[in-house]
Amino acid sequence: MTVYTNYGKSRCDLTTVRSRIAAGAFSDIVDVSDAMDFIHISHDQIDEYCRLSSEIRDYGHGDVITFSPKVFIPLTRLCRDFCGYCTFRQNPSEAEDLYLSPAQVLEVATKAETLGCTEALFTLGERPELRYSEAKNWLKSRGYRTTIEYLVDMCKLVSSDTSLIPHVNPGTMSYREMSQLRPYSGSMGIMLESLSEDLHSPGGPHEFAPSKRPSVRIKTTKIAGELNIPFTSGILIGIGESRLDRVQALFAILDIQKNYGNIQEVIIQNFRSKENIPMRHVPDAESLELRWTIATARIILGSHANIQVPPNLNADDYETYISAGINDWGGVSPLTIDYVNPESPWPKLAELNNRTSGMGFNLVPRLPIYPEYFINTDRYTTPEIKRKLLQLSDYQGYVKGGVRGYVEPK
Ligand code: SF4
Q: Would 170 be classed as within a structural domain?
């Protein structure tokens, strides 16, 4: 992991960025010492900063803003870790089901299929069997040693019995585990969240979350690169990190992308305060900070990067983040809630469509694997997953039938 400390002399301002864009530089626009100057972007400069990042986004994505029609499958909410902002995790005594059964998984996936969903998002806690004997025994009684072994079988089930393509988020994963998941899960992800070690200090949100150590998350991300797995990374803002921390995290993601090429999307997720979390007294991440971070991500990661903001975490003004440089809304479910942010309902697809088109952009449904990771390449997919992707997609690699499959034309 590279942590940049050589910040160099101040030499990059918005005029410099604009002249580099005018000269045709839509990737590698800035280096790390340039980016350090962006840390000082003020309220007065933010509109101009966002205009630049939007210009870069337009070059790579035109007027297309994507979303993934998905169903959320919380395979288990047990987790060995405790994060200060989490409402997802449960102790065994709180959980209605320790794990969803195969029948429950299949029921929700089948229902989602009838609603036109194409992604089965498996989100689950980190290795609960290491903390809870209940989890270990539940798995053992069904012939599994680990939660990830069970996850492999549930991905296999959804892959074989529905048209959905699994995307998994089980936390840290080993080479062996990811190799076992790869034939049945088209894409995978782990948020880097932050490179800040301070967040692990006493009282910090990651004090009791060893899986949130930057080094282990970078390791999982690199293994995904070695295995050519289309992968989601991202950062979490407003949890006590600084702008400098965010810049460093974005360059760490860029480093991996340059080495392996498999980072298919980067989520910029804003912290939302909730009543029932240890961080309930911490205010929501500010809109200005979210805009700054999106624009910085776009300028650092370049025109072709897929940069995502969850619309349900920004219900009042999510369309304004298009103007900061995003090109994707992530998964939106017509069926299940966001179990990680249950207080924040997904927008209705008709509303998402209207608010996206109101900004002059076209809302387009995508698959869990972005087109550039399966159209004209076999590197990132197994033949079976590729076959499914081609069945579900149009000639551009988006979901067949477009947004009209989900939303009545106006
Ligand atoms: S955020 Fe993830 S790792 Fe942290 S406690 Fe919640 S489920 Fe566990």
A: yes
